[in-house]
Amino acid sequence: MYIDRRIFYVIIAILALSRISGLLTDETALLGLLLSLPAILIAITFHEFAHAFVADRLGDDTPRNQGRLSLNPLSHLDFMGTIMLIFAGFGWGKPVQIDPRNFNRNINMSVAEAIVAAAGPIMNFILAIIFTIIYCAIVKFSPETVGMLHFLGEINPQTLIVLLIEACISINIALGVFNLIPLPPLDGSKILKGFLPYQMRNWFIKYEYVFYIIFIVVFITGITDYFVPYITETITNFLISIIGIPFGIL
After folding, report:
1. What is the mean pLDDT of residues 13-19?
2. Angstrom distances, CA of residue 84 to CA of 41, 53, 87, 166
3. Is 32 helix (H, G, I), strand (E, B) or coil?
4. More confident of the two residues 71 and 3
């Protein structure tokens, strides 16, 4: 059985459009959306670049030949994945195509595929750490900027920067967490396949369409809305608490 991805995209488009009306009637949510756009571009671009870079380092020049070894966002944006990241808080970029036959022979092919898949989420978590360091530095050396935003609600160029940094932290974590779900077409399924025993890997591939259906059901029912934001917030708070220690932020 084959699941036409166009059906998958139509379902996602309907779900995304259903959220737009609420954003258009909420000025605060709309402002948050506009401020999140640069963070979305950064998260998707570096996520897909990481896939391409690691594949290239492992010997596959397919991403290089397709122009994916680039930090140009236009090289990596997937229309539906970007729409979902904007309106739902999680999504994906244009998949990086690889040819496992080109990988160096000193590494198992399936393991190499898993490493390439893991590179995207790992990059997002690295970016989240970097932006958390910047955020903690601002809290340490310019606490009034954060105070104006969170306690007075005042918006000025300084607080806009803080909002952008906060968006970069949360969106990178959300993108990383969402893509680690072990269901196709997400990176988590490719990571899982890479470390499954041979027979289980073949079984997973054979019934991959079933997991596509499960993913669609999970998405439609909104199950991801319960655990992705919660995990994102938990990781964000953890990073701030840990990285804040050297800055004297408790």
Report:
1. 60
2. 13, 25, 5, 19
3. helix
4. 71
Angle between helices 224-243 and 109-141 (to 10 degrees): 60
Output the DSSP codes for 142-158.
Answer: -HHHHHIIIII----HH
Q: Distance (Å, rounded) from C-alpha 184 to C-alpha 190?
A: 8
Instruction: Please list the active-site residues.
Output: 48
The chain-wide mean pLDDT, for the chain, equals: 83
DSSP state of 95: P
Pairwise CA distance, residues 42 & 186, whole Å = 19
The owner of tokens 């390439």 is: 116
Please, which residues have CB within 8 angstroms of residue 84's CB and are 6 or more apart in sequence? 12, 16, 90, 91, 92
Q: Buried b / exposed e across 156-166, counting CB within 10 Å, b at 16+? A: eeebeebbbbb
Tokens of 43: 């998260």
Helices (H), 71-186: 79-88, 109-141, 143-147, 157-179
Residue 119: name the closest of 174, 188, 210 by CA.
188
pLDDT, tens digit (0-9, with 9 covering 90-100), for 55-110: 999 999 999 999 999 999 888 988 777 777 676 656 677 889 999 899 988 888 88
| Domain spans of the chain, in order of start | 5-243
Contact 189, 182 (CB under 8 A): yes
